[in-house]
Design brief:
By secondary structure, this protein is mainly alpha-helical. It folds into two domains: about 45 residues; about 80 residues, DNA polymerase, domain 1, CATH 1.10.150. α5 crosses α6. The N and C termini lie far apart (about 70 Å).
Amino acid sequence: MNTIVFFLAGISIGLATDKLYHALMASRTAVDDASKEQGQVAGTGPLPETTQSPAKEVKVTPLARASSWPEKQPSGPDEGHDDLSRLKGVGPKLEEALHAMGIHRYHQLAGLPADVLHDKLRESGGKFNRTVIVSVVEQARLASEEKKNN
């Protein structure tokens, strides 16, 4: 019996919360609409007059991908290669994809912009999470610095 009472109380609270939320959103929309009609942002008074200055021409330079991408190294024995699988998020598939792109060392991985690397991995058919790639690049940077200091 207690279970049914708690279940019904939960449903009632949920419905009441939903109605309250929709009532608040409706009143907020009404306040925003009224403020816009009066030329005001809610609670700030009238909007200031703005003058448009001519737009400045912005020169956009393309990302220098060629200079930031490492040269492919000849694939030979693993001597001289860093163990990229030690980085959290680098599994066998990502490690294989990195090796196929010529990335075998921490400093190579650390020197790449994460978004460029992510795009290259996607172009090669990999489905890797951008957040993981950003984390892997940062870990490679730290590992490369640690390796230099030792």
